[in-house]
Amino acid sequence: MALGESPPAPGAAGAGRGGGAEPARRARSVPAPPRFGTGRNADRLAPYVLVAPAVLVLVLLRLVPLFLGVNFSFTGDGDRDGAAVGFDNYTELLRDPVFRTALKNVGLLVLLLPVAVAIPGLLATFIYLRVPGHRLFRSVYFFPAVLSPVIIGAIFNLLLAFDGPLNSALDGAGVGPVDWLGDPGIAMFTVVGVHVWATFGMALVVFLAGFATLDGTLLDAARVDGASLAQVIRHVIVPGLSRTIQFVFVTTMIGMLTSMFGLLYVMTGGGPEGSTYLPEYYIWIQQGRMNRPALASAASTVLFLIMLVVGLAQIALLRRTGRED
User: Fold this and answer.
1) Domain holding 126: CATH number?
2) Considering its fold, how many domains does the chain have in total?
3) Do residues 263 and 193 lie in contact, with contact meaning Cβ atoms separated by under 8 Å?
4) Rg of the chain in Å (alpha carbons)
5) Is position 72 within any domain?
6) Is 6 contained in some domain?
7) Is residue 99 within 8 Å of residue 282, measured between CB atoms?
8) What is the C-alpha separation between 259 and 281, in angstroms, rounded?
9) pLDDT tens digit sequence for 90-133
10) Are the C-beta atoms of residues 276 and 207 closer than 8 Å to each other?
11) What does pTM read for this prediction?
12) 81: in domain
């Protein structure tokens, strides 16, 4: 034994001769019992624990009220309060000319949706390309998003009045005044335009976040190849932001169907001649003024189905377009 080496432990020689090797290997091969909160069990449970609060909130505050509302839509109002009436409420909705006008306006919103998405998309593109004054434009464009719809509606009521400053400017330019809020053929377009102006700041922020994930080398390569701005947008930016565009399309459509009540209430009150009714305004009238909650629940169910169908159709169409590109 060399100087400084420790003497062998008792039984080591026996282990070397084979007497204790097998028990030692067996002891090493036995796995330790799993402890709660560590190891593979924790890795498997972690995603469910993190998602559980959001799922709980979604179920309690969204799915349960939705189920109760759909169930309530098959009951009656007034003398038949609480009684099962089948599809009578839905039949009455289809016979109501005001609700049919609201559905037509939904179709108009779907047609105007590409414009409502293209405006913040183009502005975000210009800001991303750092046009002169892009920092100021970023702040100015987002400013309307922080204003209350009631305030915005009151401001535009003054601007768009028949004797207001906009018509005065048109009259000075030799163009006759326009009844922006009193003409049934124009009023809905006016309210939609104000809504787009008031809300496109949020979509602009989403687009700018999407640009942060865009590969800048592709833009540099397009510039070197001499691509025009339209070609860069079509062949580089749009394919690179396909997921962002899908998200903005769906959220913008939902906002147009469910967030225009304040503007409608302040600017037109559903008029003139019911031409600016949307399902959400119709729901408020039936619930708040006519005291017909079951009919309002039926209209809410129809609105939910419209949003679901339109949203799924938009996603499918955008995905197909992205694959073709």
Assistant:
1) 1.10.3720.10
2) 1
3) no
4) 32
5) no
6) no
7) yes
8) 10
9) 999 999 999 999 999 999 999 999 999 999 998 888 888 887 77
10) no
11) 0.78
12) no
Kindly state the tokens that stand for 210: 């999407």
What is the C-alpha to C-alpha distance for residues 149 and 261, in angstroms, rounded to an integer? Answer: 9
Note the maximum CA span of the chain.
Answer: 115
**Which two three-digit tokens encode residue 304?**
């939910």
Q: What is the DSSP string of 92-159?
A: HHHH-HHHHHHHHHHHHHHHHHHHHHHHHHHHHHHHHTT-TTHHHHHHHHHGGGGS-HHHHHHHHHHH
- The predicted structure's pLDDT at residue 93: 94
DSSP string, 291-302: --HHHHHHHHHH
Which residue has tokens 């053929």? 185
Intra-chain end-to-end CA distance of the chain, in Å: 79
11: left (phi > 0), else alpha (psi -120 to 50), else beta? left
Q: How far apart are CA 318 and CA 320, in angstroms?
A: 5
Mean pLDDT of 189-201: 93
Phi, psi values for residue 84, rounded to 5°? -70, 125
Alpha helices in the chain (DSSP H): 12-16, 21-29, 39-58, 64-72, 88-95, 97-128, 134-142, 149-159, 165-172, 187-211, 216-224, 229-232, 238-240, 242-258, 261-263, 279-284, 293-324
Q: For residue 103, give the nearest of 267, 300, 277 by alpha carbon.
A: 277
Q: Which domain holds residue 166?
A: 96-324
Over residues 75-92, the pLDDT tens digits come to 999 888 889 999 999 999
Q: For residues 274 and 97, give the distance between their C-alpha atoms in angstroms, rounded to a whole number.
A: 9
Q: Are 193 and 215 in contact (CB under 8 A)?
A: no
- Which two structure tokens, joined as six digits, stand for 263? 């503007």
The tokens for 292 are 């017909």
